[in-house]
Amino acid sequence: DTEVTQTPKHLVMGMTNKKSLKCEQHMGHRAMYWYKQKAKKPPELMFVYSYEKLSINESVPSRFSPECPNSSLLNLHLHALQPEDSALYLCASSQAESSARYGYTFGSGTRLTVV
Amino acid sequence: GENVEQHPSTLSVQEGDSAVIKCTYSDSASNYFPWYKQELGKGPQLIIDIRSNVGEKKDQRIAVTLNKTAKHFSLHITETQPEDSAVYFCAATSEDTGRRALTFGSGTRLQVQP
Fold first, then answer.
1. What is the pLDDT of residues A51-68, one digit of tens each?
2. How far apart are CA B44 and CA A70, in angstroms?
């Protein structure tokens, strides 16, 4: 298995809702990432998990809450989002945080719309 | 921190022609430079990468060159095909510092006209 699987592919949520995005990989990668991508822009780093511990939080608002239950799973919990949070949320993994040499594998993303 | 600039933002070529996309980076500590292709509705896919200990790398129709002194690297696609149409991102990071994720360029939308 050489893929990063993200679910759901599309999500529409209201500003008062609570939802979660899920990311799964079975490549034995020990670093996992959340990126946010707005239309016609490059991906922007949100969070990095290394060996299931949060190692980087790029000053992301607390309405985004990441969780890494085990080495294969990464969740992003969403609460009280704003319309400007609408974007493509990408999950990625690599063999280790310090080994970008092996390249990131990205999932196809979750297209989030906040109404 | 690292800053990566990418040009052009859009590029239109005829099928069979070559396409070149250029990036510059600011941090001399960066030593790993991947290129990603992103098709509509999909996540970025790694197509080629280069490390600072080499000046050029080739994989079939795709090649990447790196000039460490000038801090720029380029993607070359030869014999372009319509399926090469996508957004291409360059990126940079250091493999040595241990806690740095990729910094992406702003992207180039490549359109290959049949």
1. 999 988 988 999 999 999
2. 24
